[in-house]
Amino acid sequence: MITTKHLSKRYGDKLAVDDLTFSVAPGEVLGFLGANGAGKSTTMRMIAGFIAPSGGQVTVCGHDIERSPVAAKSCMGYLPEGAPSYGEMTVSEFLDFVADVRGLTGDLRCRRRAVVVERLGLGPVTQQVVETLSKGFRRRVGLAQALIHDPQVLILDEPTDGLDPNQKHEVRRLINELSKDKLVIVSTHILEEVHEVCTRAIIIANGRIVADETPTALEARSRYHHAVSLRFEKPEELEAARREIAALAEVAAVEFDARELRLTAVPKRGANTLSAVSAIIDRNNWEVPELHLESGRLDEVFRTLTQPPGSGVSDALQEAGV
Amino acid sequence: MNKVMVVFRRELRSYFATPLAYVFIVIFLVLSAVFTFQVGGFFERGQADLQPFFRWHPWLYLVLIPAISMRLWAEERNSGSIELLMTLPITLWQAVVGKFLAAWSFAGIALLLTFPIWITVNYLGSPDNGAILAAYLGSLLMAGGFLSIGMCLSAATRNQVIAFITAALVGFVFLLAGFPLVLDFVRGILPQSIVDAIASLSFFTHFEAISRGVIDLRDLVYFAALIGFWLAATALVLDIKKAQ
Predict the structure, then answer these.
(1) What percent of chain A has a predicted confidence (pLDDT) above 90?
(2) DSSP of B63-127
(3) What is the pLDDT of residue A321?
(4) Of A53, A179, B48, B118, which has the fewest Cβ atoms less than 10 A away?
(5) 3-state secondary structure of A30
(6) What is the C-alpha to C-alpha distance for residues B176 and B146, in angstroms, rounded to an integer?
(7) How close, in Å, is residue A99 to chain B by CA atoms?
(8) Are strands A55-60 and A63-64 parallel, antiparallel or unpaired?
(9) Across the interface, which of B3, B84, B243 has its CB nearest the CB of A84?
(10) Per-residue pLDDT reduced to its tens digit, A145-201
(11) Would strands A251-257 and A153-157 be described as parallel, antiparallel, or unpaired?
């Protein structure tokens, strides 16, 4: 269990984290989303006990991170951003060091070491010096270090950054397996990851929580929620469909891509356009090789929540005529 | 296993994982030989003692000890590994003491490797070995003093060069605290009692007393208090950095 109460962090004049209050229960995988500099890492560092909050309180497994840091840190595994480790040590020495600090001894120590080496595929590099490893391996060494004591709480700051697609998949599978009885907080800006691993997502912008929902509920906020996407074979059919679908009462807007012959019917809030659109297709006997109902676009939700209107990069580019 | 020992072992091993340890030891041994035989006139004096050897230790340490201490925290901060260390379940004190003991032991190993000079002086004459042992102890304590200063300054920055220069500078002030260079500077602005207190902080005075073979409790307490003070300052600096 992790609880934060009115957590805030001030750097000089800048308020990096502003009054965060939330709690996470075992079994939950919380995705922490936000643009770069939104305060994700700062929050995670405060939970992990690396930096002290300017105000508010963090409790991990019932221990206050400021008042009983050792007890709180004992039940937590933490992967810092960029997965730092001691470069001059071999993987094996490094894991031994962490196991010693974590107080693992005897049989348990051997077993846990073997488990993390096996789970993260570190077998071939155990005798290699950490700084000679590739980025992907270093990240996995960082994960192994965070998992070695089988912690109740896992804090992972961008665990899949710098991994190839196979490794990303493997790490996501690992998180899914762990989440059965543990509490995991993952920060990421890869939105597809949120759907794959998280049961809940918090989006922060300028140090404040702007959304705290399940990934499905987040998608439902999208203007593309229940939108219908079509692909046509003939340009003239696309043209005709554009006019007819735009005239429907349920449709708020029609977006189309003339080169790909794609069309998206964006519904009005709460409306469902699927039956009306398919009726039009049937009536006109158009050739439509692809049709699907969208559940919403996370990237669009993310952009609207984290970017105040009119301040985004794309708006600036449009104004400049790019 | 004791957490201090875990930190200590990792830190000490890291010195030997890079060329730093070997380069340092070789330079230390060569320089101490040059000072003893060339500058100190070890043979010309015709006396069976190690005064010409120990006399130069304060100056050697002034330049060389910051090279050991500069990496202690600055490197961790620069590589980011400090974030790992500080989120492991150890107290700040365990980390500070473990690291300090590792650096001190490393300096001790370098000092121990000067034993051929002790063999030489025993071969050539019959020196007072008790006095030599006392001088070795004094030298080790002084190294600890320089190291604790350097460690505190290393905790204050992520830049090892800055850590080196500031450590050498503060070390220089402590070394010469009893000399006119420092005393004349403060005499004009501070009352006599404080000037006397500053004069009594000099490394030189306390080291020279021990290196003559006189182990006075006051000198031991001086070095112990000095090291304790700078270790506490290190912990304080780290704590301030954590809250920044």
Answers:
(1) 43
(2) HHHHHHHTHHHHHHHHHSHHHHHHTSS--HHHHHHHHHHHHHHHHHHHHHTTHHHHHHHHHHS--
(3) 43
(4) B48
(5) strand
(6) 13
(7) 10
(8) antiparallel
(9) B84
(10) 999 999 999 999 999 887 888 888 888 888 888 888 899 999 987 888 888 889 999
(11) unpaired
